[in-house]
Automatic annotation (TrEMBL):
It is an enzyme of class 1 (oxidoreductase). It holds the Pfam family KDM6_C-hel. It comes from Acanthochromis polyacanthus. This is Lysine-specific demethylase 6B. Interacts with TLE1. Component of the MLL4 complex, at least composed of KMT2B/MLL4, ASH2L, RBBP5, WDR5, and KDM6B. Interacts with TBX21, SMARCA4, SMARCC1 and SMARCC2. It catalyses: N(6),N(6),N(6)-trimethyl-L-lysyl(27)-[histone H3] + 2 2-oxoglutarate + 2 O2 = N(6)-methyl-L-lysyl(27)-[histone H3] + 2 formaldehyde + 2 succinate + 2 CO2. Keywords: Chromatin regulator, Dioxygenase, Inflammatory response, Iron, Isopeptide bond, Metal-binding, Nucleus, Oxidoreductase, Phosphoprotein, Ubl conjugation, Zinc.
Length: 555
């Protein structure tokens, strides 16, 4: 005879079992029978085997995950990582083997495009997003694509929006590979700069006069006698202003500029379907929108990794050059330790690495010049710092190519931010669910990681839900509306997904404040005065989870 095959449960019987007051769920299996040459079906009732929560994996269905949660008594807060170490795709970089000194200054991967077509080749995307390549410079990309960078020149910017806001950083000009402490006696890591505000027109004036002054100085020094050149010019500290974080998000104000950037290959564009930042559902200024930088020589962007370890795209508009330093993500913890040693916060502080410290710790540093028209691709997690060599403008934004390496690093930083009580600018749980709903994934590693994150998310929600219900706390369903943002805890800045702990603050107008469970309980252990809102039906999340499957490459 043929082997028995199981079919889907029969609903009427299940309903009957429930109506009879049975609390246990029955799984009804139809068993195909062979009798006298004809196929018949027998109904067999099998008591459901519940899988223990610790045995649940992404191979299980949402129903099995939920059932396992319900069958587990979790005392206190359930807290598990959204990542599974076994799924890690990080490259193996051996830090035990000492790197010879000359290899601590590796050449930066630089790509020269033969034709416009090469920019759109999948090979370029593959190269830029390869976990081994911390940074890629695409030389003369603007020229190859005939981008009109003139639209971002200081003259054009003044003509377009002269009153637009510019954040100013006041800094001390110094050689790119030096960072002196305030006494000027030793090199150090912290590099604080004071912040103020101005307009594009006013900064443009400063930028132009700074250039004129330097021409004047050059002329004067040429006129001086050779012997008098020894005067200690280097000792005089020059204060400079760096125009930063200029917001180019408004599509009406910056239409020609933003339109020009649509000429870029899809994976570099501000918006594209395979970019996680295009699935946030709202604007994250400077990440999924363009920012502009206006510089004079010495303008410094201190060391950092991008928000949530996302990739970044940076084009030098010119006319001057920029000098870049970059270190592979692999070494970020070593750099973090240097910051701690020097009393500057790695995530939120301003620091400029002392190169000798990095070399003596066996950390390779990429160092290169970005000329006008060059595009710098900062891969996921790369630590980098930049200084202007000449007078120039730059434009930059972030992208999150949907690959396993980017996704892993983004989630890792999401969890590290929570430890350090720093806000994750990218709400990764919200984004993961959006991606699962809208994108077909054909890469196995990426699929497994996202699926695991969704599973962990469901577990957290279901266990918390059951605990609240068991304690007699009412949960109010309130569906999300269009363009509703992701939520963060008002106190600790952690992303709050699905179950929101809401209080209304007293005041003339009623304002509602979202908290995470911990912060809500810190205020009121019994959650008195706290409304628990649920933004998704659990069935809705279960459906999304079950429908999120690996799509084969060929279909
Ligand atoms: Zn909180």
């Amino acid at each position: 005879g043929k082997p028995p095959s199981s079919l889907a449960p029969v609903d009427p019987l299940k309903l009957k079992a429930l109506s009879m007051g049975l609390s246990k769920e029955l799984k009804i299996i139809l068993i195909k029978m062979q009798s006298a040459g004809r196929q018949t079906f027998n109904i067999s009732e099998v008591e459901e085997q519940r899988i223990p929560l610790c045995k649940i994996s992404i191979k299980n269905t949402a129903t099995e995950v939920i059932r396992a949660c319900k069958g587990t008594r979790v005392k206190g807060k359930f807290k598990e990582s959204f990542l599974l170490p076994a799924f890690s795709v990080k490259p193996n970089i051996d830090i035990e083997i000492p790197i010879p000194r000359e290899k601590l200054n590796p050449p930066t991967p630089s790509i020269y495009l033969e034709s416009k077509r090469d920019a759109f080749s999948p090979v370029l995307l593959q190269f830029c997003t390869d976990p081994k390549n911390a940074v890629t410079v695409i030389r003369g990309l603007a020229g190859s694509l005939r981008l009109n960078l003139g639209l971002f020149s200081t003259k054009s910017l003044v003509e377009a929006n002269s009153d637009h806001a510019v954040e100013v950083r006041t800094q001390v000009q110094q050689p790119a590979d030096e960072n002196w402490d305030s006494s000027g006696s030793t090199q150090t890591w912290p590099c604080e700069s004071s912040r103020s505000h101005t307009t594009i027109a006013k900064y443009a004036q400063y930028q132009a006069s700074s250039f004129q002054e330097s021409l004047q100085e050059e002329k004067e020094s040429e006129n001086e006698e050779e012997g008098e050149q020894t005067s200690d010019q280097s000792a005089a500290t020059k204060i400079i202003k760096f125009g930063t974080n200029i917001d180019l998000s408004d599509p009406k104000r910056w239409k020609p500029q933003l339109q020009e950037l649509l000429k870029l290959p899809a994976f570099m564009r501000v918006e594209s379907s395979n970019n996680m930042l295009s699935h946030v559902g709202h604007t994250i200024l400077g990440m999924n929108t363009v920012q502009l930088y206006m510089k004079v020589p010495g303008s410094r962007t201190p060391g950092h990794q991008e928000n949530n370890n996302f990739c970044s795209v940076n084009i030098n508009i010119g006319p001057g050059d920029c000098e870049w330093f970059a270190v592979h993500e692999h070494y970020w913890e070593a750099i973090n330790k240097f910051c701690e040693k020097h009393g500057v916060d790695y995530l939120t502080g301003s620091w400029w690495p002392v190169l000798e410290d990095l070399y003596s710790s066996n950390i390779p540093v990429y160092r290169f010049i970005q000329r006008p028209g060059d595009l710098v691709w900062i891969n996921a997690g790369t630590v980098h710092w930049v200084q202007a060599v000449g007078w120039c403008n730059n434009i930059a934004w972030n992208v999150g190519p949907l690959n396993s390496y980017q996704y892993q690093l983004a989630l890792e930083r999401f969890e590290w931010n929570e430890v350090k009580k720093v806000k994750s600018i990218v709400p990764m749980i919200h984004v993961s669910w959006n991606v699962a709903r809208t994108i077909k994934i054909n890469d196995q590693d990426t699929f497994k990681m996202i699926k695991h994150c969704l599973m962990q998310s469901i577990k957290h929600i279901q266990i918390l839900r059951d605990q609240l219900v068991a304690a007699g706390k009412k949960i109010c369903y309130q569906s999300r509306v269009k363009d509703e943002p992701a939520y963060y805890c008002n106190e600790c800045d952690v992303e709050v997904f699905d179950l929101l702990f809401v209080t209304s603050e007293n005041g003339s107008k009623k304002t509602y404040v979202v908290h995470c469970e911990d912060c809500a309980r810190a205020k009121s252990p019994s959650l008195a005065g706290v409304v628990v809102l649920e933004q998704y039906r659990i069935e809705e999340l279960m459906r999304t989870y079950d429908s999120f499957v690996l799509v084969s490459n060929t279909s």
